[in-house]
Design a protein that fits this description.
This protein is an alpha/beta fold. The chain contains 9 helices and 12 strands. It binds oxalic acid (OXD). The site of oxalic acid has 5 residues, from loops.
């Protein structure tokens, strides 16, 4: 069996080795063929494609493909460019080690702001008696209750922050307030001192956080975005940071990546920009998840019953 591998901006070698190892551990006899940069671009006869931002040509040439595995959690760019033909099912990674990393990033961003950590470092305070902020812990509101959102919520709760979660459809969480649907979004926002976006980008979540919604956040609230840039209307976020309603933003994802050099976020005094690094895909667990899924498929399990099966109508 042939498997095509496309990693684009992610380094190829670790994926090639990681996938080969996971396949051999799962007892899969498969040849993993790096697909990019081959000459000539003829079909290798792959049945499965493991891809990160693949070229459309892959799907024009490889007619034997049965399933496409996305080497990440978000499939918005795969779906937006309509590169993957309708007939081909897509399976995305579910957590695969990304969620704890993203939860760590989010909790650090919260601690940095609530514990006043930004006061220290080169050129910063050298004061042993510096104030130790000990106010009432802020409420952390997490948008998204999937594998990533729930891990972030659990991590924040572990540090004793009051946590609330909002999701498209209702989900109950022990010891956390849960909100669902657009009708409960404003009340969810009104109680979130830290708003963490962990939503996938879909037709429903694009531009969800506009001026009207962001204005519902309490005075001084901080926005953390680890989901997708296009969920936030940038001009509206910037306006609310500038007029003092919002206290800060920690942004890891953007509408255009890399973030253009002249983007106002780079130099905004209330904004921390990081280069989409909150949840790099760890190769070994991701490769194992894909290998296990292919074993299931080879046994005749329907692709739609795999945990990361993408419902195209829903958008994730
Ligand atoms: C992903 C990402 O979707 O890296 O996995 O954003």
């Amino acid at each position: 069996m042939k498997v095509a591998l496309v990693t684009s901006s992610m380094p190829l070698a670790p994926w090639q080795h990681g996938i080969a190892r996971a396949f051999s551990e799962a007892g899969l006899a498969a040849e993993v063929v790096p697909w990019e940069g081959r000459q000539p671009r003829s079909a290798i006869g792959a049945r499965y494609a493991l891809v990160w931002l693949p070229p459309a040509e892959l799907f024009e040439v490889e007619h034997d493909l049965e399933v496409v595995f996305n080497l990440g959690a978000g499939v918005d760019r795969l779906l937006a460019n309509a590169v993957v033909p309708e007939r081909l099912p897509i399976v995305r990674l579910v957590d695969a080690g990304m969620a704890p990393r993203m939860a760590e990033y989010v909790c650090f961003a919260i601690a940095r702001a609530t514990r006043g950590l930004e006061r220290f470092g080169p050129g910063g305070l050298r004061d042993w008696n510096a104030s130790r902020p000990r106010g009432k812990p802020p409420t952390v509101g997490v948008l998204g209750a999937g594998a990533i959102g729930s891990k972030i919520a659990e991590a924040a709760a572990m540090f004793n922050y009051p946590v609330r979660v909002w999701s498209r459809t209702s989900r109950a969480f022990a010891s956390m307030e849960s909100f669902a649907g657009l009708e409960q979004l404003d009340v969810f926002l009104a109680g979130s001192n830290f708003l963490v976006n962990a939503l996938p980008l879909t037709r429903d979540t694009e531009n969800l956080l506009d001026r009207a919604r962001l204005s519902k956040l309490p005075e001084g609230a901080h926005v953390i975005n680890v989901g997708r840039g296009a969920t936030i209307v940038d001009a509206d976020l910037l306006a609310l940071l500038d007029d003092g309603h919002l206290g800060g933003a920690t942004l890891d994802v953007f509408r255009v990546e890399p973030l253009p050099d002249d983007d106002p976020y780079w130099s905004h005094p209330k904004v921390i920009v990081t280069p989409h690094l909150s949840g790099p895909t760890p190769v070994a667990p991701a490769a194992t998840q894909i290998a296990d899924a292919i074993v299931q498929l080879e046994r005749g399990v329907p692709v739609s019953s795999l945990p990361g099966y993408v419902d195209r109508a829903r958008g994730y």
